[in-house]
Amino acid sequence: MLSSDLRAQIRHWFYAEHSKVGTIAQQLGLQPPCFKKFWISCPWLRFDRVLLRTRRCWEARHAEMQQELERVRDIAEAWFSLPKEERQAH
Hints:
The chain is mainly alpha-helical and 90 residues long.
């Protein structure tokens, strides 16, 4: 059984510092696979696991959006590097 202080510390690492489960395990001195089993089995972390999945989905989507923005930036840079006459021809 974990004390409420330790639970609060785990939540702080996860939410405030955005630490990953493996990082939290290392900070507690535990092996990541053991801590992940504990993380999955805790009823007080059920909502947290939903948020973790949501965060992972958001991070993946964010990476896709970042790549798309970089692609658009490259296109814009190429466009504005053309002489004015060539831009008007398009």
